[in-house]
User: Which sequence fits this backbone?
């Protein structure tokens, strides 16, 4: 597996030629970045090689040592993110949830309107606590009719 991280770095740099946001910071050997810039490989070739990297990573057995297993899992996740960036750069449309899952391994929670409505009184009280001088105009206690508290606040 030792050569696969270098393959990954080269592919990130190659994608960076097409997608400047793919590489936000690079502190490796300057010759690798110069090589990628000079080669300016077609996006289709880079995308194909990313798929090959992913296949190579997926073919590896999970190591028994925890650090080695973590390293392989992280490299697989990074390669998946790289494949998604390449696909998006190539014109593929993905949903926000698909993109965030692939790039950041996170999906925004989905809540109903009732969930937010139940939180509204607490949010209003919090906002009021920031806007009201607690000495001159104390914040209403929890359980207070929020509408009344807002009207009282606005009327000063």
Assistant:
């Amino acid at each position: 597996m030792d050569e696969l991280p270098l393959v990954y770095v080269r592919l990130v740099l190659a994608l960076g030629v097409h997608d400047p946001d793919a590489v936000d910071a690079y502190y490796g050997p300057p010759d690798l970045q110069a090589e990628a810039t000079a080669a300016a490989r077609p996006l289709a070739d880079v995308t194909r090689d990313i798929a090959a990297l992913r296949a190579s990573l997926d073919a590896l057995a999970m190591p028994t040592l925890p650090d080695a297993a973590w390293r392989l899992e992280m490299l697989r996740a990074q390669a998946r993110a790289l494949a998604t960036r390449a696909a998006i750069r190539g014109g593929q449309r993905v949903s926000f949830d698909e993109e965030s899952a692939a790039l950041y391994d996170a999906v925004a929670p989905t809540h109903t309107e009732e969930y937010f409505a139940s939180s509204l009184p607490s949010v209003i009280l919090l906002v009021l606590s920031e806007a009201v001088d607690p000495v001159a105009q104390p914040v209403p206690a929890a359980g207070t009719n929020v509408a009344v508290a807002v009207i009282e606040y606005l009327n000063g």
